[in-house]
Amino acid sequence: MLQLDQVGLDDRFFDLGGHSLQLARVRAELERATGRAIAIVELFRHPTIRSLAAHLGGATAQPTMHASPAPRTTQSTDSRAIAIVGMAGRFPGPPASTPCGTHWWQGAS
């Protein structure tokens, strides 16, 4: 997934160049391999192989925060690489009595 030759038990996914879309793929693979549902938040709470394995194995202790390893340079050679950022919002609409096309916000008090 990360196209690395080696990953240590205490290396953090995002420090190794992973991103959220890859994390979703990791989650799907883990669910398939273990046959159990894994909340995505669990992968954030247990960012290393060691802490996630302990958690999935039933350990009740809080995850140990290890020092981040030196960043590995894994630059993508794909010039088409992009970042997808999304946001959702709930905004009030015009009153039900306002005709469509009227600029309802212009005289609102």
Helix share, percent = 25-40%
Give the ordered list of helices and strands: HHH
Counted beta strands? 0
Mean pLDDT: 78
- Tell me what portion of residues adopts beta-strand conformation: under 5%
Give the radius of gyration.
Answer: 22 Å
Q: How far from one another are the termini?
A: 55 Å
What best-fitting shape do the alpha-carbon axes yield?
A: extended
Poorly predicted runs: none
Outline the biggest β-sheet: none
What do these coordinates show?
27% of the residues lie in helices and 0% in strands. The model has no long low-confidence stretch (mean pLDDT 78). With 109 residues, the chain is an all-alpha fold. The longest helix is centred in the first third of the chain and has 15 residues. It starts with 19 loop residues before the first helix and ends in a 53-residue tail after the last helix.
Q: Helices and strands in order, then pairings?
A:
Elements: H1 20-34, H2 40-45, H3 49-56
Short description:
The chain has 109 residues and is mainly α.
Features:
single chain, 109 residues, mainly alpha, 3 helices, 27% helix, extended
